[in-house]
Specification:
With about 400 residues, the chain is an all-alpha fold. The protein folds into 2 domains: about 190 residues, MFS general substrate transporter like domains (Growth Hormone, Chain: A, Up-down Bundle), CATH 1.20.1250; about 190 residues, Growth Hormone, Chain: A. Helices cover about 85% and strands about 0% of the residues. Helix 7 packs antiparallel against helix 8. The two termini are about 25 Å apart. It holds the Pfam family MFS_1. It is a multi-pass membrane protein.
Length: about 400
């Protein structure tokens, strides 16, 4: 199937729209909440706690979220999450306008928001293989990832412009409206019946969640992908810290650092969009592991030595290569995970797998902060070594056949 045929498939345009709207709202929200707390409460520590409550609870309950997806149906679960997110964010804005928002209340509302967030992040990825035929998985994933890359670039820009132009509370209401529009788009979908000859017996929710974790651990492909992609995310997490430090040191101009860093990551994000679309045409059944290994090795070389040559131009070229290779890595990962997961387990496995795969990112940011204080070059070399470890794990641990 061509990209045009995938886009013309029933439900796919609505699903891409819902994915884009929900991710845009999520990206803007994190940025705005941190700025809001710093401005309103005057505390960087409270801003850090706000980001903590906005993200960590969802990670902890992701196995239960996967069981909820299977129990309620993915479409209904995603609608529930996006609508509840709209209500909770609007509540924050209204309480703030009424001068009734205190830090503990904000933390509770952010925690409630976070607890349901895995329903959308896992649900969107679960729906794509249900709406397109198996040979089109790669192109559908590429379209999904390309929108994600674009939103990574424009999300902070939109958040900053809205916050500066209309203020925190109207911006929060814009986020709530975006979530409501995402819910409306998802509600237009018609979820197909699961393709299983013998549907699994109804289980207690916690038991079903635990079974999802056990299934991931026992599945050789999913277990190997968790190891490989966690190492890859650790390298990405290191870059988040290394890039601004490197730019500041090489420029010797702290006032211009943020501007250059923003441009560099925008280049990487746009390159990621191109990489995903190209990978969607190249990756196919049976070729996922090879492309994942090759793209990860390209990423390692882009980090070191290319990005470590000591200039902004070299760093920009390196990050562009990182973005291009990331598109191929992610398309390969998603397609392989979808093809090697039984349809009846897809909801539970997808939410657990997403959370486990991202565990390397905070480890990478911590490691990057520790190493880059001593040497930018050494930090880039360590990040590249993690990427090489990711490629080796994918090559050695991911089975060659389903």
């Amino acid at each position: 199937m061509s990209y045009r045929q995938v886009l013309a498939s029933p439900n796919v345009p609505q699903l891409l729209l819902a994915a884009s709207l929900s991710r845009l709202a999520e990206g803007v929200l994190l940025f705005v909440v941190v700025l809001y707390v710093i401005v309103e409460f005057g505390s960087a520590s409270l801003a850090g706690l706000s980001a903590f409550f906005l993200t960590l609870p969802g990670f902890l309950v992701s196995p239960v979220a996967g069981a909820v997806l299977d129990r309620l149906g993915v479409v209904r679960a995603v609608v529930l999450d996006t609508l509840s997110s709209a209500v909770l964010i609007a509540t924050i804005a209204v309480l703030s306008w009424a001068d009734a928002l205190r830090a503990p209340i904000l933390f509770v509302l952010l925690t409630l928001y976070s607890l349901t967030s895995p329903l959308t992040s896992g649900g969107i990825r679960t729906l794509f293989p249900r709406f397109v035929p198996e040979p089109a998985y790669d192109k559908a994933n590429a379209l999904d990832l390309s929108t994600f890359s674009v939103i990574d670039v424009v999300g902070p820009l939109i958040a900053g412009a809205l916050f500066a132009g209309i203020g925190a509370n109207p911006t929060l209401l814009c986020v709530a409206v975006t979530y409501a529009l995402a819910a409306a788009s998802v509600a237009l979908l018609r979820e197909p019946a699961p393709e299983t000859e013998h549907p699994p017996p109804r289980q207690h929710l916690l038991r079903a969640a635990w079974d999802g974790v056990v299934h991931l651990v026992r599945n050789p492909t999913l277990r190997a992908l968790a190891v490989s992609y966690s190492l890859y995310q650790a390298a990405s997490g290191m870059l988040i810290v290394i890039v601004p430090v490197a730019v500041g040191r090489w420029l010797g101009d702290t006032d211009g650092t943020e501007r250059y860093v923003g441009v560099l990551w925008a280049v990487a994000g746009l390159a990621g969009t191109v990489g995903a679309l190209v990978a969607g045409r190249l990756v196919g059944a049976g070729r996922e592991r090879a492309y994942m290994v090759g793209a990860t090795l390209v990423c390692a070389a882009a980090i070191f030595p290319v990005s470590a040559l000591g200039s902004i131009v070299a760093l920009g070229a390196g990050l562009a290569l990182v973005g291009l290779s990331e598109g191929a890595v992610n398309v390969s990962l998603l397609s392989l995970r979808q093809r090697r997961t039984e349809p009846a387990w897809l909801g539970r496995v997808m939410t657990v797998s997403i959370s486990v795969n991202l565990m390397g990112f905070p480890v990478g940011t911590l490691l990057g902060g520790l190493v880059v204080t001593h040497s930018v070059t050494v930090a880039l070399a360590v990040a590249a070594a993690l990427a090489v470890g990711s490629a080796a794990s994918a090559r050695l641990l991911v089975p060659g056949e389903a």
